[in-house]
Amino acid sequence: MTRYATVLAADPYQTYRQIDLAGKTATTEPHKLVALLYDELIRALRTAAIATEQGNHALKSERVTKATAILFALESGLDFSAGGEVAVTLSTLYRGVRARVIDASIDSDPAPFRESADMLAEIAEAWASVGLA
């Protein structure tokens, strides 16, 4: 029988991140939740780039999977009736980035991950400024 503390001790950093993320999302309003998704997406893409450079295929695969899931979540959360053309544009962007990330996952070039992260960071910054208004 695996002890709970033993499981937590296996990767304390990952355990902390999961607990921290659960705490952040438990009572988060939708605008902040989207901002959090952008942060996690950008982090996953940048980590995938580093993992690609280092030849760490397991980490790269894990981060690509996470990034793809977040892109699906962001796209599924779009409100096309209220968002109009912006929602359509974001949907197209998310699909394009998702395709690019999947293509990059079978290659050894970290550039697509970094370029996607940089582009999404600009969108995340714009999203954050909307929340301040």
Name some characteristics of this structure.
mainly alpha, Four Helix Bundle (Hemerythrin (Met), subunit A), 133 residues, 0% strand
Brief description of this entry?
The chain has helices at about 5-10, 10-25, 30-55, 55-75, 80-105, 110-130. The chain has about 130 residues and is mostly helical. It starts with a helix and ends with a helix.
Number of strands: 0
Q: Label the structural class.
A: mainly alpha
Would you identify the regions where 5 or more consecutive residues have pLDDT less than 50? 1-5
Proportion of helical residues = over 70%
How many structural domains does the protein architecture include?
A: 1
The overall pLDDT average reads 85
3D shape: elongated
Q: Could you spell the SSE succession in H and E letters? A: HHHHHH
Overview of this structure, please?
Helix content is 86%, strand content 0%. The chain is mainly alpha-helical. It has one domain (30-132): Four Helix Bundle (Hemerythrin (Met), subunit A) (Up-down Bundle), CATH 1.20.120. Helix 3 (30-54) runs antiparallel to helix 4 (57-76), helix 3 (30-54) runs antiparallel to helix 6 and helix 4 runs antiparallel to helix 5. The longest helix is centred in the last third of the chain and has 26 residues, at 80-105.
